[in-house]
Amino acid sequence: MALRAGDHSQVAMNGLKEKVLTLDTMNPCVRKVEYAVRGPIVLRALELEQELRQGVKKPFTEVIRANIGDAQAMGQKPITFLRQVLALCVHPDLLKSPDFPEDAKRKAERILQACGGHSLGAYSISSGIQLIREDVARYIEQRDGGIPADPNNIYLSTGASDAIVTVLKLLVAGEGPTRTGVLIPIPQYPLYSAALAELNAVRVDYYLDEECAWALDVAELRRALCQARDHCCPRALCIINPGNPTGQVQARECIEAVIRFAFEERLFLMADEVYQDNVYAEGSQFHSFKKVLTEMGPPYATQQELASFHSVSKGYMGECGFRGGYVEVVNLDAAVQQQMQKLLSVRLCPPVPGQVLLSMVVSPPAPSDPSFAQFQAERQAVLAELAAKAKLTEQVFNEAPGIRCNPVQGAMYSFPRVQLPPRAVQRAQELGLAPDMFFCMRLLEETGICVVPGSGFGQREGTYHFRMTILPPMEKLRPLLEKLSQFHAKFTREYS
Amino acid sequence: MALRAGDHSQVAMNGLKEKVLTLDTMNPCVRKVEYAVRGPIVLRALELEQELRQGVKKPFTEVIRANIGDAQAMGQKPITFLRQVLALCVHPDLLKSPDFPEDAKRKAERILQACGGHSLGAYSISSGIQLIREDVARYIEQRDGGIPADPNNIYLSTGASDAIVTVLKLLVAGEGPTRTGVLIPIPQYPLYSAALAELNAVRVDYYLDEECAWALDVAELRRALCQARDHCCPRALCIINPGNPTGQVQARECIEAVIRFAFEERLFLMADEVYQDNVYAEGSQFHSFKKVLTEMGPPYATQQELASFHSVSKGYMGECGFRGGYVEVVNLDAAVQQQMQKLLSVRLCPPVPGQVLLSMVVSPPAPSDPSFAQFQAERQAVLAELAAKAKLTEQVFNEAPGIRCNPVQGAMYSFPRVQLPPRAVQRAQELGLAPDMFFCMRLLEETGICVVPGSGFGQREGTYHFRMTILPPMEKLRPLLEKLSQFHAKFTREYS
Ligand SMILES: Cc1ncc(COP(=O)(O)O)c(C=O)c1O
Ligand SMILES: Cc1ncc(COP(=O)(O)O)c(C=O)c1O
């Protein structure tokens, strides 16, 4: 009997028992998961950094990680007030130090009072510290012009990622043609496709309209929904606003149309609003789904089910490493909400430091507080720089022949479309690579610039993109954009 | 047509659309999840606390939460050195402060160097900060008498819970009679049954031997395995050592027998070793599965698949709120390990503050460091008090007629068996409650003592237990134990 390489189902003949857990026996849903943002490009970037450290000669002196929305990794400084309060909470001896402003101390004491044993080291209740849920509720009310928010509908989470997966988990049911389908935008943030694969739900793609600055078009939603009904049971619609990777900010009318559509078609709405503080373009404004839904009145306000997600990872604070976030649920069935509560309790609680940061983000210093001026200045500086970088990115890319970039109205990314010559496409196919993966790999090898191929987010067949964050510091961003444009020109010549 | 209450499948007649997400349409696996540690008892405890605050008269003045292994919530103080380093990392301005010892500063600087942008606010790589994985590897090597550990086999996690669920996720496959079965101890820590329900895997119970101080008996493993093979495909065996809720510490011979059994029966081993620092009984000693497995030599050392879990939530530090932990995988198939890496990357990274605490736990101050003496004293004080409380608990309970408590050799819990009079059992059944739930509820209402009924962990049919942590401060623990014993006597009289 011949043993074929890669044939995992046979007992090996060298006396070794076959492993219990192999590619063939493991969870097939996990195998189907894809995740590009930390995929092969990033692994290669890590290797290159190591080679540089070892003194290997490269055509560049540093790897620039423009692949992930991680502001502080790109040099953005933490907001002082947030870290002061957190340090006080972590090490309450510091409450005696004269080096911390009064309002930071007050905040820290208030939070410690609300912690088990007055310590961040205690588990919180599973939905998050009650006081902080109340802070979040007040924040939402203010954000939405006074529309009430109930702390009991707010669940703190381990980053928004965790909350998104929790809500998807509730929604997944059925088999074969009754399997839950979930509509997601294409291009998408790949957490969605990954989580749906893992949960064995059906991913239903709707395409954003690149020609209209990545706008969401209800006719396209309808097309996707109708086609999906053949083979699954679509029950939820995910929206990312402001968009990742696409950077668009949805107009209010568009949100209304989406809500009407979801209501008519009986879809649970999931609004990923982690970039709600990241809106740069003139004329663009963030409208929360909760607010629009409520203002539309009954039956939408009273019946449409919605989950809205937020995070401490983005905005002006960029505190990714702390993994704080929340979900607000609206019009959720009470019994389902109990089930959600139970599900959360299995994982005990979200990390408390992330909860504390969230509390700062939703209740920052007031104008009368000693820390207000500095807080406000730091916050504005970050947001102003992001706005300038958004503009610069769009501008430089659009000056390059063969690159076309929609306005970066919000979030932290550009998602330019690149023309790739047919011979490059062919070469990529020979190598078994997506053409934009081939392009991005070459870009990385020759320039040290690490961006993610559009194929990792999804794109219309035959189009090619990459996602680049706008986060590198201003002095690096312009040369970076120019280098990238020049590389594209060279690449195009090479394969013409 | 009559509408029955609770009939979710009909469109309501009051003009409301039915919700998209209802008990009937939601994920049926989530519905099956049970989680007692934060179940109805704890909800009632919360209510009682609120009533006390509102001035409602009760037969007690405070609710004592002996339901959850959360040391700091019960008043244990954080270890100073851990919090100093963390505060320095959170707010690096403090590195200039004269109030922090040199070694804490060195540690903090070393960690910040290893963080993206030198900040805890950056995402780490998905498997955790490389430097900290190396620290963990060195810790394991030392713990295991020099047996090597590879940092690349170590994955940091959001508490041990997260790592346990990740490994279970990899193992789950098949349908009907080929569904993955996982052997878990009864009584168990209910994360296991909850995760298996959620993942739609088959839970295979093996009973610990209460008559032998909750020892694990391989004959019972074999019984459970054989019966399970009728209806599922058992592929993994979970061990909790030291045990939660049962407090036993496994003897080395027992671990060897378990490893031999797992190898012969082709079971993936999951060793939950989060209580490895919590061993109190004379003659008891912690042996890691990794060490025993390695010392058994081939084929065990070279082939038996193992995942071992640890956490910052327990031990002497009890830093539950930070959600730090890790898993070390041994003999995992390389391709599966890649899949695991990919799966982890979807969730971005574990919370960085938890990673930092883990780094301190695995590389504490050395004897030559300025913080050593204080660190050591604090650590010893906590462990010595836990040991005393373990002994006291066993002793007081065993003096009470109708209560029998095995020695608390390790971990943080006693799991005494209580005799409940037949009339109490009958009364409970009339109320639709498990008899021990009835007992614990009455205990809570009359004494303010919050413990978890044995039925939440599993127990042999017809036996009744409760789990009580040994964490209340010494001065509260003795009266608590006595009050509980007296309540049991009264309860017994009442229903005789
Ligand atoms: C659209 C979107 N949603 C959710 C997340 C998850 O963020 P976190 O889990 O860090 O809160 C991200 C992170 O990049 C994102 O871009
Ligand atoms: C046996 C056991 N495993 C795992 C855990 C999870 O701990 P954490 O997720 O806080 O690390 C616990 C917590 O009580 C436990 O008792």
From TrEMBL, chains A, B:
Gene3D superfamilies: 1.10.287.1970, Aspartate Aminotransferase, domain 1, Type I PLP-dependent aspartate aminotransferase-like (Major domain). Its cofactor is pyridoxal 5'-phosphate. Its EC number is 2.6.1.2. Its main location: cytoplasm. GO terms for cellular component: cytoplasm; extracellular space. Residues 103-484 form the Aminotransferase class I/classII large domain. It catalyses: L-alanine + 2-oxoglutarate = pyruvate + L-glutamate. Homodimer. Belongs to the class-I pyridoxal-phosphate-dependent aminotransferase family. Alanine aminotransferase subfamily. Catalyzes the reversible transamination between alanine and 2-oxoglutarate to form pyruvate and glutamate. Participates in cellular nitrogen metabolism and also in liver gluconeogenesis starting with precursors transported from skeletal muscles. This is Alanine aminotransferase 1.
